[in-house]
Amino acid sequence: MPTQLDNARRGEPAIRFDGVDKRFGDNVVLRGLDFTVAKGDRVTLIGPSGSGKTTILRLVMTLEEATGGYIYIDGEPLTHVERGGQRIALKEKHRNEVRKRIGMVFQQFNLFPNMKVIDNIIEAPTHVLGMSKADAVAKARQLLDKVGLADKEDSHPSQLSGGQQQRVAIARALAMDPEILLLDEVTSALDPEIVNDVLNILRDIADTTDITMLIVTHEMQFARDVSNRVLMFDGGRVVEEAEPDVMFKDPKEQRTRDFLSAVLRD
Ligand SMILES: Nc1ncnc2c1ncn2[C@@H]1O[C@H](COP(=O)(O)OP(=O)(O)OP(=O)(O)O)[C@@H](O)[C@H]1O
Ligand SMILES: [Mg+2]
């Protein structure tokens, strides 16, 4: 039976930014940022270095907190609500509940260095979701198999190549069965010859699941293959938004054209 909450969530976007501001001291990174990501959407964010792409993902993951505005996940406020014209912070417990539905893979892998591969993967499912160790291990093994690392469960991250560490990080994110997956330049720290292995795993996830994805990448072919929408982002705002074919072939805004010609030249 769908609950009242399920009914309320139906039709709501997976992610909605409503007038989001983010400042670091005097540095205003986002100002009044509005955008939505529909459920099951695969959205790529592009934009110049320092424009705030990582910050957007970190806000969704609650690793940073917005200084103004509201972020909604499935229609539920993430960290703040508006009540009587006031911006009120929600309790830590509420954030943690909402964050359970979100996974993130980082440029620098961010595995727990002192834990074996298998323990990296079962950590959150056992501690955050309360899954039994046996179930978590069984699921972790399936995921390791899926990312081609079935033989590495007892290794430590330092014993793995960058590409292998990133595949573990992907398995770790998937172990939480996220509804939303955030990918921040996940191949930028990898040697060119293994970039495609990691991208192929992500393509497979995109093809075989309905996970909503918000992707920051410089891999334009990957963005084209996987995403159904591209947001060009600069100066704290969305400058242009289009399907990948349109965005990469025939962008409307001069700012987008300049950016793409600089990136594609590299
Ligand atoms: N923890 C922080 N403390 C202070 N300033 C920060 C912090 N994190 C990010 N910034 C600043 O916020 C701005 C946006 O940074 P962000 O990392 O989001 O950019 P980006 O678009 O991801 O860039 P890149 O393409 O280089 O990864 C930058 O000016 C950066 O210096
Ligand atoms: Mg970044």
> How many helices?
10
Q: Tell me the strand order in the biggest sheet.
A: 8-9-10-3-11-12
Unreliably modeled segments: none
For the secondary structure, the number of strands is 12
Helix content: 25-40%
Radius of gyration, taken over Cα atoms and rounded to an integer in Å: 19 Å
Mean pLDDT: 93
- The amount of beta strand, in percent, is 25-35%
Sum up the overall morphology in one term. globular
What compounds are bound to the protein? adenosine-5'-triphosphate, magnesium ion
Topology as a string of helices (H) and strands (E): HEEEHEEEEHEHHHEHEHEEHH
Structural class: alpha/beta
Give the end-to-end Cα distance, rounded to a whole number of Å: 53 Å
What can be said about the biggest beta sheet?
6 strands, mixed
Explained architecture:
- It comes from Spelaeicoccus albus.
- This protein has 266 residues and is α/β, with parallel strands linked by helices.
- The protein has a domain at 109-177.
- Helices cover 38% and strands 26% of the residues.
- The protein is built from 10 helices and 12 strands.
- Helix 4 (117-127) runs parallel beside helix 6 (162-174) and helix 6 (162-174) runs parallel beside helix 7.
- It is globular and about 50 Å long.
- It starts with a helix and ends with a helix.
- The model has no long low-confidence stretch (mean pLDDT 93).
- Bound molecules: adenosine-5'-triphosphate (ATP) and magnesium ion (MG).
- Magnesium ion binds at residues 53-54.
